[in-house]
């Protein structure tokens, strides 16, 4: 969002004129600033344009450095977009917030009881408060778990409620989010980014902090894990989900394992995490994956991201989910049409928070009503599953437009609802021309523990990208703003998720690394090194052409090696091959962003952008492009080396780098020196291994094949040599899980030990193509053995697999 114009008095007057068309959060009827917004505007008004621009820039810088993004889906593709945070925050009056919280807690209690009844006795259907077809035809009613509501444990622990304020000033419920509510992590990032821009303003308003809510939620999760505080995981659909960043961020913030369905297995009704150190039990999962995708055995058979047997583990009581499988049924829009009878049956009282007026077309009388009032209603799906955004305002589609029409019979109407079209209130957001009124919705979050329901003191506010937007959706260009709840006095003590100051601590090693994360780290190392090898070879080829060398045997050999990396010289677009390699590394890194620094992630993304720019501009400076790529890759390697904790994940990435560099060095030396080495091959090999300066310092003789081979292949002190990579592998793998001094080594470590000795005892004159090809084959086998032992199955599997003759 473009934010650069200060809120000077005349701009506020201009804003009041724009906001006069409807209900505004800041401007009261008559044009005066509402009292709860007055302190904010008093702080913003004196700020000059330059100061405000600087503050907005600091907010954007934080979001960029933290790597905050969301996925936007297009036609058959997805793109990562920077997080669209606007300013200022939505301010809600303290007294009004207290009343709103009471209504939200009442609604959460209502939803909890409704879900328990639908998956239990189903009294609301037996007593006629809810038509049975809305359960029987509902895709979110999971029959394998039809009796789970009869137990004592609550089925809901974390929910969200979408709210909008109507013209009468009251907050209305637009929908409930109980399947896997998103936005809480983005609300946290909004708060941090807004605080970077306006730390003095938020302090002056005594804005309530969010950490206390999340600390309570984390304590609830660990309480569910039992007295042994068993592992707690966050179950994510994976990096292609639009809110994956939030999943990774919340897992890191709360200290949870970030898991995908493939990380889990179910043995004897118990869920376990597949780690590099064997299978480890897990008791609690915060589910961010839609329920029907969780178990391909009992739920949706086409799911490729679930865990077979997960529903069985839930039924056995060995695994607790937040929220329960099947909780998505509460998101059924048709339920909004039966709120009054349901509330009376379950609570014995009316809900204080009204819902947007909804009529279910599965009853003849209601269907005729919708037909007769089509001009002031809109149609929507009755069941969950179809995209359903808050659609409000004068431009909302009526029946008869956009392919929608009122059903002719109640049989057709079962799947449709008619909803009232009401104008949303607007909130001030800085745009290109200053403060502009934008339609706004609020997503409020609630969590449940033994004491009951608690509301996050704030929330996730979405704003439209224009005044008359029909849909407020991040997927359709909308933005987000922070939500502030001012307090009359500052908190006595800041609340954080860290322990109290002065508490004794014990340094503990991280838990076992999930095999999927280890696999991605391993291949991240390989892909990053693969990109570096290709860039070095391409720079070498282009550099010789730039120096006037005619295409000869050496250039042909380099081009052949590059073809193995997907980089075509003859086609005239070698940068496209580099782009594919760069994307491999960036895409792999996107799966494990929580495990290394945002700077390292941005470096890989910058390489992709660098190559795309060169392709778009038809830049033919290949040497300049490859040099820039190598500089960025060196930065990535340095960041990973300096910033990553020296534990199991780092070791797997180092294994990947060493294996890839070792195989590449063996292949390049073999190709360039095979048979009669072409003119310039020795210089080219030193350039490829970045060893020209080292050579001059190490050897006092002219170039010879033996000395070059000694430095590039056998020298254990040269970080580019083949021997150095094997020594690195031996050192790093010796610290992997399950390796114990004194035990008989399995095939992986026997192969590695023999390879290390072979290189230590070899003489340069022995190193020919056959020797190098055998070394490359050994490294390929070691890679397979490492994968088999740690990344595909249990650690003992490799010992049972021969892996070929020794």
User: Regarding quaternary structure, how should these chains be classified?
Assistant: single chain
* Biggest sheet statistics: 7 strands, antiparallel
Structural class: alpha+beta
- Note the overall shape: globular
Summed over residues and divided by their number, the pLDDT gives a mean of 88
Number-wise, the strands total: 21
Approximate strand percentage: 5-15%
- How many helices does DSSP assign? 27
Catalogue the unreliable spans.
Answer: 1-6, 387-397, 794-806
Helix content: 40-55%
Terminal Cα separation, in Å? Answer: 62 Å
- Gyration radius, rounded: 31 Å
How would you describe this protein?
Residues 1-6, 387-397 and 794-806 have low confidence and may be disordered. The chain is α+β, with helices and mostly antiparallel strands and 806 residues long. Strand 4 (158-165) and strand 5 form a beta hairpin. The radius of gyration is 31 Å and the shape is globular. Helix 15 packs antiparallel against helix 19.
Secondary-structure map:
Layout lengths: L8 H11 L18 H7 L4 H18 L2 E5 L4 E5 L7 E2 L2 H25 L4 H4 L6 H4 L21 E8 L5 E7 L6 H14 L1 H6 L6 H14 L7 E4 L8 H11 L2 E3 L4 E4 L2 E6 L2 E4 L2 E4 L22 H7 L3 E3 L16 H8 L11 E3 L3 H9 L4 E5 L28 H4 L2 E5 L5 E6 L2 E16 L2 E4 L4 E4 L15 E3 L1 E2 L30 H32 L6 H12 L9 H17 L7 H19 L5 H22 L4 H26 L7 H8 L3 H7 L6 H10 L7 H12 L13 H15 L7 H24 L4 H4 L6
Helix pairs in contact: 3-7, 15-16, 15-17, 15-19, 15-20, 15-26, 16-20, 17-18, 18-19, 20-23, 20-24, 20-26, 24-25, 25-26
């Amino acid at each position: 969002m473009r934010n650069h114009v200060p809120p000077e008095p005349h701009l506020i007057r201009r804003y009041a004129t724009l906001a006069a068309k409807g209900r505004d959060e800041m401007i009261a009827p008559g044009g005066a600033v509402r009292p709860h917004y007055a302190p904010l505007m008093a702080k913003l008004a004196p700020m000059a344009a330059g100061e405000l621009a600087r503050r907005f820039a600091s907010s954007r810088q934080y979001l960029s450095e933290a790597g905050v993004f969301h996925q936007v889906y297009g036609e058959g593709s997805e793109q990562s977009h920077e997080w669209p945070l606007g300013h200022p925050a939505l301010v809600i009056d303290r007294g009004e917030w207290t009343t709103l919280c009471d209504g939200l807690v009442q609604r959460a209690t209502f939803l909890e009881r409704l879900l328990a009844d639908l998956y239990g006795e189903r009294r609301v259907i037996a007593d006629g408060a809810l038509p049975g077809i809305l359960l029987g035809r509902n895709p979110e009613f999971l029959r394998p778990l039809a009796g789970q509501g009869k137990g004592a444990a609550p089925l809901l622990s974390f929910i969200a409620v979408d709210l909008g304020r109507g013209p009468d000033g009251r907050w209305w419920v637009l929908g409930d989010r109980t399947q896997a509510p998103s936005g809480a992590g983005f609300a946290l990032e909004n708060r941090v980014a807004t605080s970077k821009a306006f730390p003095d303003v938020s302090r002056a308003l005594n804005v309530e902090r969010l950490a206390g809510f999340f600390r309570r939620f984390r304590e609830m999760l660990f309480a569910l894990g039992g007295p042994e505080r068993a592992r707690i995981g966050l179950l994510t659909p994976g990096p292609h989900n639009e809110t994956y960043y939030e999943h990774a961020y919340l897992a890191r913030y709360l200290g949870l394992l970030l898991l995908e369905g493939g990380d889990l297995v179910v043995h004897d009704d118990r869920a376990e995490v597949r780690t590099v150190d064997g299978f480890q039990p897990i008791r609690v999962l915060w589910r961010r994956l839609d329920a029907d995708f969780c178990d391909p055995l009992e739920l949706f058979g086409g799911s490729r991201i679930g865990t077979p047997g997960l529903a069985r583990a839930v039924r056995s009581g060995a695994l607790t989910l937040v929220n329960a499988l099947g909780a998505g049924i509460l998101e059924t829009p048709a339920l909004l049409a039966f709120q009054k009878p349901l509330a009376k049956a379950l609570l014995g009282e009316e809900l204080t928070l009204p819902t947007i007026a909804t009529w279910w077309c599965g009853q003849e009388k209601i269907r005729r009503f919708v037909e007769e009032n089509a001009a002031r209603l809109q149609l929507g799906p009755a069941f969950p599953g179809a995209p359903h955004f808050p659609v409000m305002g004068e431009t909302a589609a009526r029946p008869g437009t956009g392919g929608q029409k009122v059903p002719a019979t109640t049989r057709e109407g079962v799947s449709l609802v008619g909803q009232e079209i009401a104008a949303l209130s607007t909130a001030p957001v800085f745009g290109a021309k200053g403060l502009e009124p934008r339609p706004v919705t609020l997503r409020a979050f609630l969590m449940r523990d033994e004491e009951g329901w608690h509301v996050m003191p704030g929330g996730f506010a979405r704003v439209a990208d224009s005044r008359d937007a029909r849909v407020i959706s991040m997927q359709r260009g909308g933005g987000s703003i922070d939500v502030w709840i001012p307090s009359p006095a500052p908190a006595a003590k800041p609340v954080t998720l860290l322990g109290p100051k002065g508490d004794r601590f014990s340094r503990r090693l991280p838990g076992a690394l999930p095999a999927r994360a280890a696999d991605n780290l391993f291949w991240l190392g390989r892909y990053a090194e693969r990109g570096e090898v290709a860039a070095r070879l391409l720079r070498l080829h282009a550099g010789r052409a730039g120096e006037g060398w005619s295409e000869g045997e050496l250039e042909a050999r380099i081009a052949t090696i590059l073809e193995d990396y997907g980089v075509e010289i003859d086609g005239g677009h070698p940068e496209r091959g580099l782009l594919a390699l760069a994307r491999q590394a960036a895409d792999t890194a996107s799966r494990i962003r929580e495990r290394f620094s945002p700077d390292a992630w941005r470096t890989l993304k910058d390489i992709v952008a660098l190559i795309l720019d060169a392709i778009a501009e038809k830049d033919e400076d290949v040497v300049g492009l490859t040099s820039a790529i190598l500089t960025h890759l060196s930065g990535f390697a340095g960041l990973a080396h300096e910033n990553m904790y020296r534990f199991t994940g780092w070791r797997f990435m180092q294994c990947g780098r060493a294996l890839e560099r070792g195989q590449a060095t063996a292949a390049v030396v073999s190709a360039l020196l095979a048979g009669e080495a072409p003119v310039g091959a020795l210089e080219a090999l030193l350039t490829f291994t970045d060893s020209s300066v080292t050579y001059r310092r190490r050897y006092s003789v002219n170039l010879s094949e033996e000395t070059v081979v000694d430095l590039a292949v056998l020298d254990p002190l040269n970080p580019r040599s083949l021997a150095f990579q094997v020594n690195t592998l031996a050192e790093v793998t010796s610290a992997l899980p399950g390796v114990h001094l004194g035990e008989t080594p399995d095939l992986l470590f026997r192969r590695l030990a023999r390879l290390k000795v072979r290189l230590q005892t070899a003489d340069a004159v022995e190193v020919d193509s056959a020797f190098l090809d055998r070394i490359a084959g050994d490294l390929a086998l070691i890679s397979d053995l490492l994968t088999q032992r740690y990344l595909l199955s249990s650690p003992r599997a490799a010992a049972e697999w021969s892996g070929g003759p020794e």
